[in-house]
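Retro notes, item 3 of 5
We never archived the inputs for the adenosine-5'-diphosphate complex last cycle. Fixing that now. Sequence and ligand:
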Amino acid sequence: MNHSAFRNSQDTFLSDALAGLIANHPDARWHDVGFIGRTTPLRTADGDPAVAVISGGGSGHEPMHAGFVGQGMLAAACPGLLFTSPNAVQVSEATQWADQGRGVVHVVKNYTGDVMNFTVARNAAEAVDTRTVLVADDIATDGNEDGPGRRGTGATILVEKVAGAAAYRGDDVDTVAELGKRATENSRSMSVALGAGFMPTTGRETFDLEAGQMEVGVGIHGEPGTHTEQVDSASAIVNQVLEKIVPALELGQGDEVVCLVNGLGGTTPLELSLLFGEASAQLAQRGITVARSLVGSYVTAVNMHGASFTLLKADAELLELIDAPTSAPAWPHTLGGAKAVEPATITFQDELPSEGEENQWLTAFVERLQASFESLTELDRKAGDGDFGQNMEAAFGGIELPLRGTDTEILTGLAKRLLVLAGGTSGAVFGTLFTELARAESLADGLNDAADLIHELGGAKRGDRTMLDALIPAAEKARELGAKDPDAETLQALFAAAHAGALDTEDLAAKKGRASYLGDRSKGVIDPGALVVSWLFGGGPLSTR
Ligand code: ADP
Ligand code: MG
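Structure as it came back at the time:
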């Protein structure tokens, strides 16, 4: 993979990025001993001095931790270098700064370097009453008691939320720490990666993974997981993860959980939604209710293409703290939860007739089209956005041939398919063409009405490199012939006119549609929409010419 990153230089990447982060943060200021602190007073809901919850860790996991600085969550965050724990001075300075005389709770992810530096920092800030909540939720590192123990991953933000909300409501330092501990002890996580991330400071991938393989149980720095295996379906991946987390938390019938489906930085929101749907449905099958859900990229590993799953076994108090409002910009404004996963497909009533006489004209057209989805996409890829064939397939794929019924019936059915099933410009434009053809008294009227309407619809003129470059010559020819029905002779004449118009689009630069963004680069490629118009009149070999 040829990766890159937005940066001025490897050396200044982190400081440049942090400067931008703070400039966009409504309640954060940079302290040049190396921490980000709130600008607003560290007070409880009643306006009294509050226990301060602070955290820190290697950078590269944003929005954690800086995005969770705010009222009701963190008082300060100490960012280390990329994937490197913060140093003890940063942490002790932040601790002393944050203390309001009521004590400070450190939320520490369980990594040797983090644990050490927070410990040294506490010793250095001995005048402050500190407590530590060690987050250790990554089940892939379970059974590692002789070593450093479970890693701290996705659950960290739930712990920060619970502890931060407790501090804001006025709890004392012991209670805040106890609640934070309860949140981590009741949480387990597991991550899966389909692709490594790219380190903007070193120019290296975070780990090696062969194409088609996935790393199961991967860490949030790209540490290896339990094993590497062939990429499986989302449903199987989620099942594999839940098979580990559910027994570890002794979850069963009637239990409620907070479910965090977290992107590792290079995963699309749609993929995360899909994974959440799977997780929620599979939890429901096990009798477990998702009381609250968070779906998004909160604890990232630069731009790793992966996802982590965290479940927190909930009780009423933990849920209350999760629900409490916070001004931290990265915490979602509202949480999901307790909703069944229902199918989200569009229902469509096909109006194509299933009986009647075989319709040769429109059967030939659809047959041609069905054999050409890929080559049409190819043309739109060269000069457009590459979805034209897909849009045609959405409308015409799956139609059983031969078509039966009258021209009017079939044209009506095809128009509906285009308008409902196809997307893009083509759905609207070809939907209009077929609607007009179905409605008109004669072929000549239908083609001319359609050309006029499509011109009004999208403003395209002849020569703009659209389907009108084939439709207008065909409409003119039909008018000249006084064409009423699509008999063989008429079709042949219309094909000649339309096909010549379609071929001429090769020399035109697109002025409309998504191809227009390419300007002259769209030249040298036939407009696929114009080609399809010509196929309506048959003729020619089965190719894109
Ligand atoms: P999109 O541009 O939304 O990706 P499609 O790929 O579905 O649209 O369709 C592209 C085709 O639509 C082009 O080949 C062209 O023939 C046609 N087209 C684009 N813009 C217009 C327009 N303004 N009027 C008529 N046809 C158009
Ligand atoms: Mg397109």
